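JOB MANIFEST
job_type = single_chain_structure
chain_count = 1
residues = 600
[input]
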Amino acid sequence: MHPDNEPARPSPGDSEEQPRQVRRILKLFRPYRSRLAVVGLLVGAASLVSVATPFMLKETLDVAIPEGRTGLLSLLALGMILSAVLTSVFGVLQTLISTTVGQRVMHDLRTAVYDRLQRMSLAFFTRTRTGEVQSRIANDIGGMQATVTSTATSLVSNVTSVVATIVAMIALDWRLTVVSLLLLPVFVWISRRVGNERKKITTQRQKQMAAMAATVTESLSVSGILLGRTMGRSDSLTQSFSDESERLVDLEVRASMAGRWRMAVITIVMAAMPAVIYWTAGLALQMGGPDVSIGTIVAFVSLQQGLFRPAVSLLGTGVQIQASLALFQRIFEYLDLPMDITERERPVHLDTIKGEVRFEDVEFGYDGKSAPILDGIDVTVPAGGSLAVVGPTGAGKSTLGHLVPRLYDVTGGRVTLDGIDVRDLDFDTLARAVGVVSQETYLFHATVADNLRFAKPDATDEELHAAARAAQIHEHIAGLPDGYDTVVGERGHRFSGGEKQRLAIARTILRDPPVLILDEATSALDTRTEAAVQDAIDALSANRTTLTIAHRLSTVRSADQIVVLDSGSVAERGTHEELLEKDGRYAALVRRDAQLEPTS
């Protein structure tokens, strides 16, 4: 997304925003709380079992070995082995459940973002780079995988282990425990500083990854390759990508090294703590302090070593969570995007649609600030009637057509279908009612049959063939080596422009909508093919409401009503003959077309 179109975001250090964001993240796990409760039980059980081992070690060194009690020694050894086995089993089960929950949360996030984007107005996508959208879904959500699949469970596990271990240490010797924990507040402070630093870098890194993804999507598409090579800009595009990648390298190194030395100091200090305990205990004995048994010291050091791993992991987890907040923030930005096109709380559903379309004092502007693109449009198209909209480029013709299926919503007045404001209809009714064939034909990288069945998934082969015949494309498809199983290629680049538009017309015919919007639907066709397709459209238009938007006036002469738009307003209206008699704008357009028509 271009910087001036990015959603407003709070600063990374916003003290009020961060707790709210954490609560929102926790809410994602709410549907899986029963499974998480099982994980909590497994974590608690594993922590208790692991803490028991040092106490058994103390008994072994202080009682079983010195007193030669073989039975007790065997029992204690067996207990330590059993403790290791149970800890491992609990760990495997805990990992299985927590990973499943994490992956389900990621699935929910991906689906929520995709669903949100599906419901955004066309205006959002006209100002947003495709690569940016893909990066949010792939890179940002993918980058959160470690956090949602293991970090949350690791946090619970490490907290439980640390608490259980500290309690056990206090039970053994509270004085040694105080010595062990003196530097803990300093470690927590350092980890928070490192976390904030990582979060800022992560935000920058994800932006750079989005920019690089957008570059790849635009330049490595079929259209991008064609443009780059025909313009001789392949080397320039490669250099541009290299520059983007170079910036990412720098951010990746900074993200990896952020706070690394400070965390290394923490690791060194905690690794040195056993030596401090031995030194403290030995010094206390020499100075006549309290007597501490060898078993107690060894058990205490064992607990401290057990504390070392989860404590360091816990500090690292805090850093990871701070960095992940930046990713969650980027995802929540998309989930919080205002939806321009929404369904009423109780929308109107129509089982039978006649097809009368009315534009009642319609006004439309993209941002509500600049001059409106459409202003004061009053046009009625009776059910089964035909309306042609013509005019110079930029007059607002396509925008007018987009208002009927609610690709945009009016900013003034209203558009009605069978007397009902289209904003009051449910999406299903509107989708069934209005079929659109755009000048920018889009075909999926799939077979011809799959592309046609996108309009009607349960269509039979006979229905596909009938729709293709109506669009004058069946013979061409049948002549392909794989027929209707031919893969069209990305964006249909294996087909010519005219063939793609005929496929799009066939797809709309298959859907059989009562209202047709033909937005330059024959603009890419040669004169002969255009005439054939126009015959099919004329036959299809019988008993259907048809709104035709055209630059080439040869397709609109038979329309019941022709409207000439100029600067967003209706300049003229009438039939072809009536407008020619007026000798106004329409007549001028007809003369221009006649001059542009090929003579041969």
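[summary]
Confidence is low (pLDDT under 50) at residues 1-13.
The first strand starts at residue 357 and ends at 364.
exit_status = 0
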